[in-house]
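Section 5: illustrative case.
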C-alpha cells in the first residue's frame, strides 16, 4: 500500500495530540485535533513542494495550517534550495510594512532551531521605480554581480516573510523563484516511486513538526515566570532586524492582564504587534476574534503608551485581546524592521488585576472605551482583510 507510511504517521501523530501533557479540557483536545488536521494538510503540501531543481514558493502557514506561534500579520512563504546551484528570485514589492528574506540550513527539529545563514529585509534590495526587483542566490563567486547572495554550506531553504501593519490598506507583492539552469526546462513526469517517497517524507514532516512545536515553548516561554513578559530580545532564529518579548499567561475568567508598552513609532519599528497563542503553540483565531493587534490597529493613549487588556470577559475596550475560552496560553510582542536595538525601557510592563478594577486602574479608561457596534465593525474588517490577503 503506497500510502501506508503516511497513514501510520497520522495514527502516531494522533497519539502525540491525545497524549500532549497540556491537554486538560475538551476544548484543549478539540483544538488539538484541529491543529492535527492543519498539520496533515501542511505536511502533504510541503512534501509535494520539495523540489530544489524546479522550486516554487509555497505558503508555509496560514489560518488553517498553523504552526510555531504564527504571526497573524505575516504571510509566510518558503522554497527549497541546494547550496551548489544558482537561483533567480524576481518580484514586485507590495505596500506591506516589511518584506524579509532568510536562508536556513535545514528545518526546525525537536532538538534544535536551524541555523540562519543569511537574513535581510528589502532595504537591501535595488527596487526599481515600478516596484520590481531581482535577486540571485548561489555558491560564492568572486565575480558576483550586485544583488547576488552567496549560499553558505548546507543552505536548504529560502524563507520569505511579508508583514502587514495596516491590514485594510496594505497589499501583497508578487514573488517567483527559479533555478537558473532549469529555466525553460521541465522536470521528469512523476512515477510511483516518487509518489511513495513523497508520502514517506510527508509522514516524517508531520511527526517532526508536531514534536518540535510541542517542545518549542519549553525553550523560550515556560521557563519564564507566569503572567510576565521578557524584555525585548533578538528573536531566536537569526532575524537580524526583529526583536520580541515573550511570555505565558494563566488567568481565571474574572482577571485581566494589562500589558503596557511604549508605542515605538515608525522611525524605530515600522512594525509592532502583539498576539495571543494557545498551548498548541499556534495563534488563536485572529480572523473572527481580536486576538492580535498591530500598532496601527491599536488605540494609543495620550502618554505614548499602548495598553492592551487580555481577558476572557469583554471589558468594552478598544485594545481588548480575547482569550476565547483559554485560561492558559502564550503572549508575544514583535518589533520588526528596526532602526536601532531595543532595551528594557522599550519593553512591556505587566499587571494582573480583577476585571472589575479596570476602570480605576487604566489611566485613560474612558478614552479607551468602545461600543459593541464598533467592535463588530472591527471584526468584520478583520474578516475581509484576511480574505483579501490570502487570495493569490
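Designed sequence:
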Amino acid at each position: 500500500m503506497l500510502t501506508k507510511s503516511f497513514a501510520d504517521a497520522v495514527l502516531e501523530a494522533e497519539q502525540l495530540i491525545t497524549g500532549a501533557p497540556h491537554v486538560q479540557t475538551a476544548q484543549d483536545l478539540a483544538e488539538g485535533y484541529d491543529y492535527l488536521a492543519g498539520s496533515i494538510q501542511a505536511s502533504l503540501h510541503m512534501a509535494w513542494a520539495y523540489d530544489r531543481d524546479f522550486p516554487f514558493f509555497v505558503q508555509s502557514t496560514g489560518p488553517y495550517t498553523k504552526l510555531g506561534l504564527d504571526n497573524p500579520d505575516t504571510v509566510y512563504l518558503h522554497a527549497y534550495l541546494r547550496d551548489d546551484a544558482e537561483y533567480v528570485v524576481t518580484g514586485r514589492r507590495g505596500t506591506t510594512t516589511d518584506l524579509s528574506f532568510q536562508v536556513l540550513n535545514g528545518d526546525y527539529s525537536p532538538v534544535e532551531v536551524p541555523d540562519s545563514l543569511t537574513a535581510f529585509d528589502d532595504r537591501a534590495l535595488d527596487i526599481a521605480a515600478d516596484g520590481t526587483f531581482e535577486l540571485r542566490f548561489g555558491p560564492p563567486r568572486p565575480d558576483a554581480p550586485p544583488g547576488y547572495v552567496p549560499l553558505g554550506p548546507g543552505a536548504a531553504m529560502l524563507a520569505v516573510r511579508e508583514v502587514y501593519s495596516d491590514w485594510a490598506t496594505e497589499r501583497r507583492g508578487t514573488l517567483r523563484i527559479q533555478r537558473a539552469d532549469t529555466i525553460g526546462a521541465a522536470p521528469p513526469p512523476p512515477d510511483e516511486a516518487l509518489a511513495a517517497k513523497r508520502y514517506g517524507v510527508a509522514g516524517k514532516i508531520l511527526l517532526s513538526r508536531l514534536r518540535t512545536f510541542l517542545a518549542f515553548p519549553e525553550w523560550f516561554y515556560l521557563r519564564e515566570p507566569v503572567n510576565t513578559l521578557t524584555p525585548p530580545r533578538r528573536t531566536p532564529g537569526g532575524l537580524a532586524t526583529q526583536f520580541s518579548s515573550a511570555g505565558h499567561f494563566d488567568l481565571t475568567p474574572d482577571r485581566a492582564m494589562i500589558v503596557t508598552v511604549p508605542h515605538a513609532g515608525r522611525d524605530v519599528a515600522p512594525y509592532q504587534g502583539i498576539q495571543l497563542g494557545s498551548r498548541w503553540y499556534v495563534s488563536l483565531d485572529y480572523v473572527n476574534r481580536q486576538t492580535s493587534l498591530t500598532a496601527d490597529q491599536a488605540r494609543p493613549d495620550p502618554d505614548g503608551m499602548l495598553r492592551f487588556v487580555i481577558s476572557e470577559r469583554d471589558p468594552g475596550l478598544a485594545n481588548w485581546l480575547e482569550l476565547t475560552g483559554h485560561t492558559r496560553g502564550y503572549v508575544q510582542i514583535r518589533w520588526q524592521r528596526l532602526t536601532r536595538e531595543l532595551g528594557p525601557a522599550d519593553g512591556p510592563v505587566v499587571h494582573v488585576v480583577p476585571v472589575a478594577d479596570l476602570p480605576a486602574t487604566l489611566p485613560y479608561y474612558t478614552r479607551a472605551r468602545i461600543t459593541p457596534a464598533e467592535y463588530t465593525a472591527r471584526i468584520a474588517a478583520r474578516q475581509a482583510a484576511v480574505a483579501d490577503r490570502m487570495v493569490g
